[in-house]
Amino acid sequence: DVVHIQVVLPYDPNMSYLKGLVGLIRTARQESSKFIGQIILMDPAVQVDECISALKLDYLHPTDDLIQHRTGKRLVQGWNEIKDSAVKYKPATPGMSYYKDNGVYLITGGLGGLGYIFARDIANATANSHLVLTGRSELDEGKMERVREIESLGTKVLYIKSDISVKEDVDKLVQATIEKYGQLDGVIHSAGLIKDSYIIRKKTSDLEEVMSPKVKGLVYLDEATQDQNLDFFVVFSSLSGAYGNPGQADYSMSNAFMDYYTMYRNACVERGERKGRTKSLNWPLWTDGGMQVDDAVKMFIKKNFYMLPLPTDQGIEVMNQCIANNIEQCVVQYGDVKKMRENIEQSEFL
Distance between CA atoms of 237 and 282, rounded to whole angstroms? Predict the structure, then answer.
């Protein structure tokens, strides 16, 4: 028997992060052919009979996993290709730089994986800038070598040991940054970890460990920096948040949460409650940095999804475009463009 679950949530821009539950739904569907799940957002003022009719209609479209009913319209999430994604970076405003000289930038997970790649990129792109890098471990010789490499490019590095899933640590991190430099110009939230296993075998402790850096960490970072005059606030999500991934229900849900929290924070920016547009990048595998998998998994991804690991220079180019231009969420794929394009259903964003 097939189990079909419909989760109904109120449509509320201030609660858009609740749509992150779709990451769990998408993963569960891939782990079991007997499961169908849908996240359905309804206008709070909808009448009971209208709600029932809408749910019956949604039931007939089981592959639609994130649906919104609002002002008489039924919207289903899909993805639209950025047609000029291959065009070299151009600032949104002539003369405007996405990173600036003498800037102060905070990067979580800044000495590991993608954080380190973008720490170097900022150092290469600026003069006299300052990087505040954070991680949960002490500075060992390997990390010190990376710090020295970044500083050799003319950028000062302050490393602060901090657990971003602990509110007090995040508050102290931001406070220490402001006390030392008097400003904070941008945030890149790249911290994260995985502990893969199917939902049926997931432990509560594993779920908490995987979700905390991305969920708690993001909320605490946002709250701690809400009074800062940021130029941008970038979160590093994953393709698992956009599509789900077997064995990664917690990781998929965490990344989907980040994607939709981005929308919530941008709504705060529009109301003048925050500074700096929020960007979410759903990264694929990288050739260097990021989460790594064995060759068998890479071959599976190539065969079934036509994707290859993303080269570092291409990833940096995508990041530059997203920061400089009005892109709220960007799903990044690298590989056989024609075949990947065929897999993407073009439809309207929620």
Answer: 4
Which candidate, 235, 260, 196, places its Cα nearest to that of 23? 260
CB atoms within 10 A of CB 35: 16
**Strand 186-189 relative to strand 156-161: parallel, antiparallel, unpaired?**
unpaired
DSSP state of 83: T
Sheet architecture: strand order including 232-238: 156-161, 130-135, 104-108, 186-189, 232-238, 277-283, 329-331
What is the DSSP secondary structure assignment for residue 213, as one 8-state letter?
A: H
**End-to-end C-alpha distance for the chain, whole angstroms:** 31
Q: What residue has token string 């999430």? A: 77
**Residues in contact with 170: Cβ distance below 8 Å, sequence separation at least 6, in sequence order:** 162, 164, 217, 220, 221, 224
SS3 329: strand
pTM: 0.91
d(CA 259, CA 321): 17
* Residue located via tokens 């970076």: 89
pLDDT, block means (10 residues), the chain with 350 residues: 93 86 94 95 92 96 94 86 58 58 96 92 94 94 94 95 96 97 97 92 94 97 97 94 91 95 94 95 86 68 82 90 84 88 57
Other CB atoms within 10 A of residue 306 CB: 18
- Of the candidates 39, 3, 1, which has an alpha carbon nearest to the alpha carbon of residue 253? 39
- CA distance linking residue 100 with residue 47, whole number of Å: 52
For the beta carbon of residue 57, count every other beta carbon within 10 angstroms: 13
- Return d(Cα 288, Cα 316) in angstroms, integer: 12
Structure tokens at 123: 């150092």
What 3-state DSSP class applies to 302?
helix
DSSP states along 233-280: EEEEEEHHHHH--TT-HHHHHHHHHHHHHHHHHHHHHHTTSS-SEEEE
